[in-house]
């Protein structure tokens, strides 16, 4: 289920079956024009990944709104903010909570998160609809879905 009014209505009715939450983490920095294209590409690809994972694990997963932060942010501060999200989320019957990102800086603070981190290696900007990109994403979605299932 996605963060859409129709899906959330279904979630409220069947939340005892939806035990996993996925929160995409997205870094951006409008003031750094040299990285805008790369940042936008990563946002697009992260959206594809999370939507495909949600489809793959349909019936057990809720895809939360994207958590956006500035690249220059202090990650300790961001960890506190995410953990406050997690504290609120835990009022629901979620047993598995994941954040997913391309930003490897999160690996350094992973132990301080009150959830599980899924780090994806970055892709170079290009055609995300190319046959190679589609195959790569599909393969990784299958692996990530299997990893999430292992937490169940």
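Sequence proposed for the structure above (152 residues):
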């Amino acid at each position: 289920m996605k963060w859409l009014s129709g899906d959330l209505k279904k979630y409220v009715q069947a939340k005892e079956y939806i035990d996993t939450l996925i929160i995409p983490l997205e870094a951006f920095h409008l003031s750094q024009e040299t990285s805008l294209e790369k940042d936008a590409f990563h946002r697009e690809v992260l959206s594809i990944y999370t939507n495909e994972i949600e489809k793959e694990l349909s019936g057990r997963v809720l895809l939360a709104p994207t958590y956006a932060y500035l690249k220059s942010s202090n990650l300790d501060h961001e960890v506190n903010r995410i953990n406050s999200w997690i504290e609120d989320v835990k009022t629901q019957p979620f047993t598995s909570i994941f954040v997913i990102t391309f930003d490897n800086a999160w690996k350094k603070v992973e132990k301080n998160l009150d959830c599980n981190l899924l780090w994806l290696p970055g892709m170079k900007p290009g055609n995300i609809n190319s046959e190679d990109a589609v195959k790569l994403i599909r393969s990784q979605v299958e692996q990530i879905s299997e990893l999430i299932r292992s937490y169940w």
